[in-house]
Write a structure and sequence with these properties.
By secondary structure, the chain is α/β, with parallel strands linked by helices. The chain contains 6 helices and 5 strands, in the order βαβααβαβαβα. Helix 1 (16-30) crosses helix 6. The structure holds flavin mononucleotide. Flavin mononucleotide binds next to helix 1.
Length: 179
């Protein structure tokens, strides 16, 4: 069975990106995938300190929740990341999560399809471009993986705004179903 990992990075209650991520979860479950949903709220994930010890040992010198979370990335066939747009980029918490996946860089990994879901006040075309570009940079470092799609949830700002956006909920469901 295909394993789909969903990583939701917003820390606020009523998170729009998380509401969309849960729709993607429904779609992926309806498609018959084995879905795991993780939320970075309350997780201890320290910044990467750049020592590069992990390139030889395949594990981080820091002891925190990332030791468990990285195993979930390793076991996944597909990953859906969800992030609020902060200053036209991905959230700092998602970037830290990606940096802390550095122990995977020298290893062979199986996750292939990588998706992004964003939420933002701005509804303009290109609002999520820098976040997409950042994620693509990470994907380029894992040769078996590819950027497989993005849902740009624009025009949602207050908590739970996404719940009233049938268009975005539907797109998120479809993204999950195809993941
Ligand atoms: C620190 C910060 C920076 C933000 N920067 C942007 C931005 O550059 N463009 C934008 O459209 N919205 C911006 N927003 C608004 C959020 O993207 C928006 O409220 C989004 O729905 C939050 O998603 P969430 O509910 O999943 O956390 C920012 C919000 C915060 C807290």
């Amino acid at each position: 069975m295909k394993k789909v990992l969903i990583v939701s990075s917003s820390l606020r209650g009523g998170s729009n990106s998380e509401i969309l991520a849960h729709e993607a979860e429904k779609g992926a479950k309806d498609a018959g995938s084995d879905v795991e949903f993780i939320n970075l709220k309350g997780k201890e994930i320290k910044f990467c300190i750049g020592c590069l010890a992990c390139q030889k040992t395949f594990k981080c010198v820091q002891k925190d929740d990332m030791a468990d979370l990285i195993g979930k990335v390793q076991n996944a066939d597909a990953i859906i990341f969800a992030t609020p747009i902060y200053y036209y980029e991905m959230s700092g918490q998602l970037k830290t999560f990606l940096d802390r996946c550095n122990p995977l860089f020298p290893q062979s990994n199986k996750f292939k399809d990588v998706y992004l879901i964003t939420s933002s006040y701005d509804d303009a075309v290109g609002t999520a471009d820098k976040a997409i570009s950042g994620l693509k940079g990470w994907i380029e470092c894992f040769e078996q993986s590819r950027f497989s799609g993005c849902l740009v949830g624009g025009g949602i700002n207050e908590p739970k705004d996404a719940s009233a956006r049938e268009d975005l909920l539907q797109q998120a469901y479809e993204l999950g179903k195809n993941a």
